[in-house]
Amino acid sequence: MEMIIDLPGGARVDAHFANFTVKTDQPTVGGGEDSAPTPFALFLSSLGTCAGIYVLGFCRQRGLSTDGIRIAQRMHSNPITGLVGKIELEIQVPPEFPEKYRPALIRSAEQCAVKKHFENPPSFEITTKEVALA
């Protein structure tokens, strides 16, 4: 898979892949227009939305209603490094959601591919290449 990342102006940076464009920006205090999420916020949101796909799939396979189900994601920063040190995913279910499925719901969310990449990060290779302007 290849993504093309471009710099359309201001503090915006966009990613293009398949038939999609994912827009990012910086808040006004960071020199942006606050017109889109920051790249880091988008990155973090991929964890909760990925877990959500697994929760959705679990419920669909069992014919369980997803009405009222949501995931609250909380990030806790390490006060020394300033980096995210802990991420909590709380699967919120309505009172009528069967108790017997709650542990399995957690196990399904733990299968999230984004989470697995956090736990086993890829290596990075960053290079430059000269290309002619189109």
UniProtKB/TrEMBL annotation:
The keyword Transmembrane helix applies. The chain crosses the membrane at residues 40-59. Pfam families: OsmC. Keywords: Membrane, Transmembrane, Transmembrane helix. It comes from the Bacteria. This is OsmC family protein. It comes from Candidatus Desulfolinea nitratireducens.
